[in-house]
Amino acid sequence: MAFGRSSRRKQRHVEPVTLKILVAGGFGVGKTTAVGSVSEIRPLRTEERLSEAGRPVDDLEGVESKTTTTVAMDFGRITLREDLVLYLFGTPGQDRFWFLWDELAQGSLGAVVLADTRRLEDCFAAVDYFERRRIPFTVAVNTFEGAERFPTETVRAALDLDPEVQVLVCDARDRSSVRDVLVAVVEHALERAARSREPVAT
Ligand SMILES: Nc1nc2c(ncn2[C@@H]2O[C@H](COP(=O)(O)OP(=O)(O)OP(=O)(O)O)[C@@H](O)[C@H]2O)c(=O)[nH]1
Ligand SMILES: [Mg+2]
């Protein structure tokens, strides 16, 4: 029969929920790399060459092999589940592009703050930004060769994070590692949203 329940169920197409996640952090910490390694579409990049003229401003210590920098944003997409798709927006890392952050942050569910333990102070501004706007975030320490490994609790203390903020270790070049971080961000943001809907006990 054409209009039976079973035929209707088969036809049902679930429109996926799409969520916007920011990938932020200091200059050269691996944001573009992370979006690129996890994206299932060819990521949109807005890279410009680092020039001699930028040398006094662009601190390349620790990322001497870096030749380009993000000037507007990175964009990528990952399907976490059939019904859950993330749109990823990588922020520019340099201070002179800060004015773009508010545009990028609009409507975002949560954020990843990538951190490099050799230059941890570079992610202070991103942590402050999300704390101030109450955007849920997870810190992901991107492990570079030659960088000293610290326990995540040390990183948490150095960044003075709230207990609810997770600190994970990742490799921005590794798809499954970045995916795990994104899952953690989504779970954290959804938990926080659920908590804020709970009636306050009196
Ligand atoms: N060893 C190592 N190198 C990495 C890793 N992630 C990124 N890199 C390298 O570090 C450099 C910086 O990476 P990007 O992804 O451009 O960093 P970014 O945070 O987007 O930089 P900006 O947009 O300029 O702020 C590149 O040369 C990468 O190849 C990592 O996990 N390990
Ligand atoms: Mg970049």
- What's the total count of β strands? 8
Computed Rg? 19 Å
The proportion of residues forming helix, as a percent range, comes to 25-40%
Return residue spans where pLDDT drops below 50 for at least 5 consecutive residues. none
What's the CATH first level?
Alpha Beta
Tell me which ligands are bound: guanosine-5'-triphosphate, magnesium ion
Largest sheet: 6 strands, mixed
Per CATH, the superfamily is P-loop containing nucleotide triphosphate hydrolases
Proportion in β-strands: 15-25%
Strand order of the largest sheet: 4-5-1-6-7-8
The name CATH uses for the topology is Rossmann fold
Return the average pLDDT rounded to an integer. 90
Pfam families: ATP_bind_1
Family: Belongs to the GPN-loop GTPase family.
GO molecular function: GTP binding; hydrolase activity
Keywords: GTP-binding, Hydrolase, Nucleotide-binding
